[in-house]
Amino acid sequence: MTWRREADRVAAEARGRHGETLACDWLRDQGFEIVAQRVKTPRGEVDIIARRPGLVVFVEVKWRARETDLDFAIDQRRLTRVARAAELLWPEYEKAGDDMRIDILLLAPGAMVRHIANAWMPM
User: Fold this and answer.
1) Domain edges within the chain
2) Most Cβ neighbours (<10 Å): which of 44, 74, 99, 113?
3) Which residues does 95 contact at the CB level (< 8 Å), separation at least 6?
């Protein structure tokens, strides 16, 4: 890997972390407690795990430089990886009677947060 590619990767990682920080702030404003971030499993990674009474939410966060790029930020393959990871993590975070869902938060500078609740529906 060239030094330029490595620098690009590091910059992209920093932008992603910034987006996740903003997403956590937004979720807290919506009444969620953040219980975990960047949880890795053999099946994939979940950016944020949040909860409020009776609900555990596994959140995929996408940060883009331009609002117009948000329309293409998530696809079925990425969402499937999050769903597979959530399936493994669910027993660790559930409490009796909890529901679960997978949400997507799309963020860009100057844009309102796009929240897609319950984004995963198995085929």
Assistant:
1) 3-116
2) 44
3) none
CA angle, corner 34, sides to 76 and 118, nearest 5?
30
Closest CA to 111 of 68, 47, 48: 68
Assigned token pair, 59? 């959140």
Count of residues making up the chain:
123
Q: 3-116, what's its fold?
A: Trna Endonuclease; Chain: A, domain 1 (3.40.1350)
pTM attached to this predicted model: 0.87
Cβ-in-10-Å burial (0-12, 13-18, 19+) of 61 comes to: buried
Cα separation, 43 vs 36, whole angstroms: 17
Q: Identify the residue whose tokens are 């053999």.
A: 42
Strands 99-107 and 44-52 come out as unpaired
Position of tokens 């844009």? 111
